[in-house]
Amino acid sequence: MEFNKIWETIISCWQVKLLASIFVTAFTFLVGEVEAPFIALWLLVIVDTITKWASVSKNTLDQQGVDGSIWYGFYLAWHTGALSSREMRHKFATKVFAYFVIIIAGHLVSVVLPSIIIAGGDISKMPGGLVISFLAVTELMSIIENLIAMGMDVLKPLAVWACRKRDDITGGGRQ
């Protein structure tokens, strides 16, 4: 009697459960296990988006010559067109799509590489980790730029230092 109840629970809505299982399996195969760095990256993307809205709001207040809160600046930015849901959706969707493509590529490279354990760490996982780390640092730099645009000039030396380091590593700024 109890077995029939359990069985009915298992097979109820089996189509939805099957589709969800297929999605989760494909997602896990493509991006790997969802671990702290992956979650941290997406939290940084959200913080970057919020700080971008705030910097546009502050900029709108300054352009309008209004002394108000960031919330009022957001209201003004929305109503003057400095912020638009269409543009935000387009930019955010493009960014998310690009990040997922890069993360998937990095993870698949990690899957293809042979497992080599050195000092307790698997070297084959480096490409995926490198991609997530690079994207996280990119988001951090964008957050710093947004905060500077909001008037937090104390962060300017950090931004200058980070740009110099980036140029040293990439060879940027040299002709």
Mean pLDDT: 86
Please identify the structural class as seen in this structure.
Answer: mainly alpha
What Rg do the Cα atoms give? 23 Å
Described by the principal axes of the CA atoms, the overall outline is: flat
Care to count the β-strands?
A: 2
Strand order of the largest sheet: 1-2
Oligomer status: single chain
Q: Would you kindly provide a written description of the structure presented here, covering whatever features stand out?
A:
This protein is mainly alpha-helical and 175 residues long. The chain folds into 2 domains: 1-30, no CATH class; 32-170, no CATH class. The chain has helices spanning 2-11, 14-31, 36-64, 70-80, 85-112, 126-149, 156-170, and strands at 117-118, 121-122. The protein has a two-stranded antiparallel ribbon. Helix 5 (85-112) packs antiparallel against helix 6. It is flat. The N and C termini lie far apart (79 Å). 11% of the residues are buried.
Question: Keywords, please?
Answer:
175 residues, mainly alpha, 2 domains, two-stranded antiparallel ribbon, 2 strands, 77% helix, flat
In brief, what are we looking at here?
This protein has 175 residues and is mainly α. It contains 7 helices and 2 strands; from the N terminus they run H-H-H-H-H-E-E-H-H.
